[in-house]
Amino acid sequence: MVAKVPGYTREMGIAIMMEHPLPGKGGRHRQTISYGQRTDLSLSPRETLAREVRDVRVIYRRQGLYTRQIRQSLQQVISLNKSAWSGVFQKEGES
Predict the structure, then answer these.
(1) Which mean pLDDT values do the consecutive 10-residue runs of the chain (95 residues) have?
(2) What is the number of other CB atoms lying within 10 angstroms of the CB of residue 81?
């Protein structure tokens, strides 16, 4: 978003905490497609948010941990991003 939204800084980001399974090394965050990767600037902020939410959903489903609470948390992340960054997450052609 830094490259696409004027005034945005990483400290302003809205995120979901992904706990570490025990026992284990690295935790779920390291399993995400974006961990340690550069941002794909060909994607819109809306596409990036959708991609990240899908990725988290897949990780929790694969581990049999995708619950109503996780679903609600992901919906909250989407909602908070939309309200904090008005207009940034609209579909192409919407005004």
Answers:
(1) 76 82 74 81 89 94 94 95 86 70
(2) 19
Using CA atoms, how far residue 57 sits from 72, 83, 95, in Å, is 11, 22, 29
- Which two three-digit tokens encode residue 45? 């902020």
- Collapsed DSSP state (helix, strand, coil) of residue 7: coil
6 exposed, middle or buried (CB, 10 Å; 0-12, 13-18, 19+)?
A: exposed
Residue 49 buriedness (CB in 10 A; 0-12 / 13-18 / 19+): buried
CB atoms within 10 A of CB 15: 10
User: Within a 10 A sphere around the Cβ of 17, how many other Cβ atoms?
Assistant: 7
Can you give the C-alpha Rg of the chain in angstroms?
14
What's the one-letter identity of residue 85?
W
